């Protein structure tokens, strides 16, 4: 079975929440667990699912979240897509500074473009998951 757009959206949402996702090809089910590299990872609640996936790994497609470089590119693409040249310039300046992720988030969260950003990011995450299928 190949993931549908609905599967891809669910996987993209889970990745955005810090999960590592797996699509089970024979059944079409989605399995996930917290990223073991995460700061607060606790293996206990995930032991069973991790063991089940590892035992049947050939039947799963693994999906990983974007790395920070790719996430940065999404933020830059969003800034460049804006028609509001003042806010676009502000975001591009933020992206040129140190620690751009939190500054970008703060600027967007406190702007009229907050929902526009969420929609843009969600679409980028959807396309990222789709690309991992090829």
Task: Supply the key terms.
134 residues, mainly alpha, three-stranded antiparallel beta sheet, 3 strands, 12% strand
Describe the structure.
The chain contains six helices and three strands, in the order αββαβαααα. The longest helix has 18 residues. 19% of the residues are buried. The protein is mostly helical and 134 residues long. The protein is elongated, with a radius of gyration of 17 Å. It has a three-stranded antiparallel sheet with strand order 2-1-3, with helices on both faces. The mean pLDDT is 95. 55% of the residues lie in helices and 12% in strands.
Let me know the number of strands: 3
Cα shape: elongated
Helix percentage range: 55-70%
H/I helix tally: 6
Structural class of the secondary structure composition? Answer: mainly alpha
Share of β-strand residues = 5-15%
Q: Report the uncertain regions.
A: none
**Amino-to-carboxy terminus distance:** 14 Å
Largest sheet: 3 strands, antiparallel
Rg over CA atoms, rounded to whole Å, is 17 Å
Average pLDDT: 95
Order of helices and strands: HEEHEHHHH
The side-by-side strand order for the widest beta sheet comes to: 2-1-3
Concise structural overview:
By secondary structure, the protein is mainly alpha-helical.
């Amino acid at each position: 079975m190949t993931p549908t757009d609905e599967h891809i959206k669910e996987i993209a949402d889970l990745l955005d929440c810090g999960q590592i996702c797996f699509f089970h090809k024979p059944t079409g089910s989605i399995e996930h667990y917290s990223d073991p590299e995460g700061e607060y990872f606790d293996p206990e609640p995930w032991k069973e699912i991790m063991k089940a996936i590892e035992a049947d790994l050939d039947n799963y497609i693994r999906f990983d979240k974007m790395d920070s470089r790719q996430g940065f590119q999404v933020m830059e693409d969003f800034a460049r897509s804006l028609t509001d040249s003042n806010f676009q310039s502000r975001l591009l300046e933020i992206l040129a500074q140190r620690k751009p992720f939190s500054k970008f988030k703060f600027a967007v969260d406190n702007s009229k473009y907050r929902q526009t950003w969420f929609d843009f990011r969600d679409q980028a995450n959807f396309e990222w998951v789709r690309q991992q299928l090829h």
